[in-house]
Amino acid sequence: MTVDAQENAVPWKPRATPARILTAAADHIERVGLYQGDHLWQPGRMGNTAPCNLLHAWGRGVRAARPRWSERGEAWDVFQRALFDSLVVLSNEANGRPVSPARWRTLGLDEDAYRRTMLWCWTDTPGRTTAEAAALIRTAASLCRSDADHVTPGCPTLQNMV
């Protein structure tokens, strides 16, 4: 079989979907636990085994779905859409409803920064548990098309944005 035939034999399938990002995040937080407190930035104690907040768990999910550095083009485009959509769906779920653009515009933030801040602050609400965090992430993952290739932006909650 020629090299061209080998490349065409297996259709390219993106690794990055919002559901995959969020499922990996839920798996991570269930494994390491939820961390609450004033001193979240502890470089010597962070990583694969240290308890984390919701934003850090989402970041671990993003790293799990990131294409290989050697891949070019479409894989990265799909990844960028999945990254954004997973952040939107998770922050909407943490908020309890779609987040209005007026909220980040009023504060002079961009959407990405506002949504990441929401995830950080959600964690520090007194009484949050690891099980609650994992359930929130898994619920957000269930809102995304889990088995479909993520080639067009938009999960169900994006259609409800005010």
TrEMBL record:
Note the superkingdom of the native organism: Bacteria
The record's listing under InterPro entries reads: DUF6197
Report the protein name in the record.
DUF6197 family protein
The species this protein belongs to is Streptomyces amakusaensis
